[in-house]
Specification:
11 helices; 6-stranded mixed beta sheet; Peptidoglycan synthesis regulatory factor (PBP3), Domain 2; Beta-lactamase; alpha+beta
Length: 458
């Protein structure tokens, strides 16, 4: 009797008591993913003629066009963007403070100039217009000497110490490929930059409230006084100025710098704003077309600003709930498969002419080749990787689109099959048969012995 009870208990443990199954985590979030860490495919066939070009959208934090943008170049006139920004940041609340021009604070003046004279009394504001609108090197030098009046000096030379501060500021802004050697941008051995660093400086300058008031004006008048010569300061940036021609003037442009050297060619740094979005362009290696007389860097800038405003947009590359794959389900009472769907939509900032079918691809990873019922709607069973031109962009969870209940009959049959084919069961069965056989032999021997005793008694 006890033996029978033991056998029944073993069978109950093997066949009737269901084993605990691992549960999948359910995802209930319903939102849109907008990845940011990816590079937009560059349009190589744009009619851009300047040698080095970079277009940046601050709102979308994207470089929208590149041409030879990683080349190390002399900074040229772009130096004055950072010099002007640093000086403005220090004096923005003291713009009407006066400076008397001396022989000393004209020391170091070379190149482009508006020819301020010793003895003139000018305000910081007037000199800032001369520096940021016209790119006047004499204005830069005078302002640097003023800047350094109350600064700790390391070398004793104002210009050298200011350049050291410029390099420190550039490093702070993330300009790891830039070295400045002077405040004028004239050729000097060892000076270097890349266009991405120029853009970083321009973004910083534009972030200083009020600075683009200086860079977006087309002209500024310094009135004649007893000490001062009257001057009209004209912007050299044709995108904001009409003093030579109105052909390039472009609404929305707020600056920022124009200049030229033999080493860098014609250089242009552009800041602009349209519909709340800010765009920046850095151009080096511009030139004047000998046949048409047009300055190609301005034509390039106008083309790229229109390109930035019209050629890009947010495109849905993955829609939440769309069928992506199926996976087999074991012991399902209603179905032997379940569909896996993404939990979120994915939207990317891309050129509007992006061929989504060709440029956007997907990689599917299912965690298990077979799921075991029960499966609940929303259970995570894999992940989908969205790729753009072969690069992984983001990963989205794949979940079961419906629930699949478990069939107890199929489950118990499978448990039975698993048990009877397991090595442990086979060994146990063999042992059990041997014991049963031994028990039968012993039992038979006992019966024969009893029978012999009975015969003797008779």
């Amino acid at each position: 009797m006890r033996f029978r009870i033991f056998i029944a208990a073993v069978l109950a443990a093997l066949f009737i008591i269901p084993a605990a199954l691992p549960a999948f985590a359910a995802v209930t979030e319903a939102d849109v993913v907008e990845p940011t860490d990816y590079k937009i495919k560059n349009e190589d066939d744009l009619p851009i003629r300047s040698e080095n070009v970079l277009l940046y959208s601050e709102h979308d934090d994207r470089f929208l066009y590149k041409k030879n943008s990683d080349m190390s170049l002399e900074p040229g006139s772009t130096v004055k963007v950072l010099a002007g920004a640093m000086i403005y940041d220090k004096f923005k609340d003291r713009l009407d403070e006066q400076i008397t021009v001396t022989e000393e604070n004209l020391d170091g003046k070379e190149g482009l100039s508006v020819y301020f004279e010793v003895g003139e009394i000018l305000t910081v504001r007037q000199l800032m217009y001369a520096l940021l609108m016209y790119g006047a090197n004499d204005a830069a030098v005078i302002l640097v000497h003023k800047y350094m009046e109350d600064e700790e000096k390391q070398t004793g030379d104002d210009l050298t110490d200011f350049v050291m501060r410029m390099n420190a500021k550039a490093k702070e802004l993330g300009c790891t490929n830039t070295v400045y050697k002077n405040v004028t941008g004239l050729h000097e051995r060892g000076a270097k930059t890349i266009l991405k660093d120029v853009i970083r400086v321009a973004v910083y300058a534009a972030s200083l409230e009020g600075l683009t008031e200086f860079t977006s004006r087309d002209r500024y008048i310094i009135e004649e006084t007893k000490t001062n010569v009257g001057r009209i300061i004209l912007s050299r940036n044709h995108l904001v100025s009409t003093f030579r021609t109105s052909e390039y003037r472009t609404p929305g442009v707020t600056g920022m710098s124009y200049g030229a050297t033999d080493e860098t060619g014609e250089c242009l740094v552009v800041s602009s704003e349209y519909s709340g979005k800010k765009y920046f362009i850095a151009i080096m290696g511009g030139f004047t077309d000998k046949e048409t007389g047009r300055q190609v860097e301005f034509d390039d800038a106008i083309y790229l600003l229109n390109y930035a405003k019209t050629a890009f947009g947010y495109i849905e590359v993955l829609r939440k709930g769309t069928v992506k794959t199926q996976v087999k389900v074991l012991f399902g009472s209603t179905s032997d498969t379940v569909t896996l769907i993404p939990t979120k939509s994915v939207t990317m900032f891309l050129p509007k002419n992006t061929n989504v079918e060709e440029e956007i691809t997907y990689k599917t990873l299912v965690y298990e080749s077979e799921l075991k019922a029960p499966v609940r709607e929303g259970d995570v069973a894999g992940e989908l990787t969205v790729c753009y031109n072969g690069d992984d962009i983001c990963k989205i969870p794949l979940v079961a689109s419906t629930s699949v209940e478990r069939s107890q009959i199929l489950y118990l049959l499978d448990r039975t099959r698993a048990v009877v084919t397991s090595p442990g069961f086979i060994v146990s069965a063999v042992v059990f048969v041997i014991l049963l056989f031994g028990y039968a032999i012993v039992k038979s021997a006992v019966i024969r012995r009893r029978q012999k005793k009975r015969k003797k008694l008779r």
